[in-house]
From TrEMBL:
<dbReference type="InterPro" id="IPR050324">
    <property type="entry name" value="CDP-alcohol_PTase-I"/>
</dbReference>
<feature type="transmembrane region" description="Helical">
    <location>
        <begin position="39"/>
        <end position="60"/>
    </location>
</feature>
<keyword id="KW-0444">Lipid biosynthesis</keyword>
<dbReference type="InterPro" id="IPR048254">
    <property type="entry name" value="CDP_ALCOHOL_P_TRANSF_CS"/>
</dbReference>
<keyword id="KW-1133">Transmembrane helix</keyword>
<dbReference type="InterPro" id="IPR000462">
    <property type="entry name" value="CDP-OH_P_trans"/>
</dbReference>
<dbReference type="InterPro" id="IPR004570">
    <property type="entry name" value="Phosphatidylglycerol_P_synth"/>
</dbReference>
<protein>
    <recommendedName>
        <fullName>CDP-diacylglycerol--glycerol-3-phosphate 3-phosphatidyltransferase</fullName>
        <ecNumber>2.7.8.5</ecNumber>
    </recommendedName>
</protein>
<comment type="similarity">
    <text>Belongs to the CDP-alcohol phosphatidyltransferase class-I family.</text>
</comment>
<keyword id="KW-0472">Membrane</keyword>
<dbReference type="InterPro" id="IPR043130">
    <property type="entry name" value="CDP-OH_PTrfase_TM_dom"/>
</dbReference>
<comment type="pathway">
    <text>Lipid metabolism; phospholipid metabolism.</text>
</comment>
<dbReference type="GO" id="GO:0016020">
    <property type="term" value="C:membrane"/>
</dbReference>
<dbReference type="Pfam" id="PF01066">
    <property type="entry name" value="CDP-OH_P_transf"/>
</dbReference>
<feature type="region of interest" description="Disordered">
    <location>
        <begin position="1"/>
        <end position="27"/>
    </location>
</feature>
<keyword id="KW-0808">Transferase</keyword>
<keyword id="KW-0812">Transmembrane</keyword>
């Protein structure tokens, strides 16, 4: 019995049974590339597009109109929710791309940064809070580009938690809540600042290890 006939019997009598292979690859299985234009990346781009819309609604009627503050909060919430949805779709349907890994955190930073600066300009949020968060976000974004040739640093669970807390805290500042909510809003923003700094340090460590050639699948990562 030849080696070929033995293989055919092991696969049920058909030489092509089992894993489908591509003749172009010489019989080596390969995955179809994920298209950059997919629903997950479209939602990410939509989040970026909603940033100027949010700012316009935030500053309508001097920035302290109850009606427009509610509208601004809704726009902000819709944009923030897309962050959750696009990530789930990307993981569930295998739509993860390098563009998405890079654009998703940038979209988050654009939305969060616009909200913080807007609230500080209106006098609703201290500038030092905005400065700390903005410096961290800008620094991490520049760092991502600096190490891009070594690999992409995706947003981790800590970064996602940070973004969630930031969004909740910003939402509390955006809404025209009663004065009694001021303490709760300040506590939420304080937690957001803490997570922002902590996760920023974690990303710096990841960048240093990436430049050193240490990847997540390697020992010690």
């Amino acid at each position: 019995m030849t080696a070929q006939s033995h293989d055919e019997m092991a696969s049920g009598g058909h030489p092509d049974a089992g894993t489908e292979v591509s003749p172009v690859q010489g019989g080596v299985p390969h995955e179809k590339p994920v298209p950059v234009v997919n629903i997950a990346n479209i939602l990410t781009v939509l989040r970026i597009v909603l940033v100027p819309v949010f700012l316009v609604t935030l500053f309508m009627d001097g920035g302290h109109s109850t009606f427009w503050r509610i509208i601004a909060t809704i726009v902000f919430a819709v944009a923030a929710i897309t962050d959750r949805i696009d990530g789930q779709l990307a993981r569930k349907y295998g739509l993860v791309t390098d563009f998405g890994k890079l654009a998703d955190p940038i979209a988050d930073k654009a939305l969060i940064g616009a909200a913080l600066v807007g609230l500080s300009v209106l006098g609703d949020l201290s500038w030092w809070v905005t400065a700390i968060i903005a410096a961290r976000e800008l620094g991490i974004t520049l760092m991502r580009f600096a190490v891009l040739r070594h690999g992409v640093i995706p947003a981790g669970r800590g970064g996602k938690l940070k973004t969630l807390v930031q969004s909740l805290a910003i939402g509390m500042y955006l809404l025209p809540l009663p004065a009694g909510w001021a303490t709760a809003s300040a506590i939420a923003m304080g937690l957001a600042v803490f997570l922002t700094v902590a996760t920023g340090l974690d990303y710096v460590i990841q960048a240093v290890r990436l430049r050193a050639g240490v990847h997540p699948h390697e020992p010690g990562s």
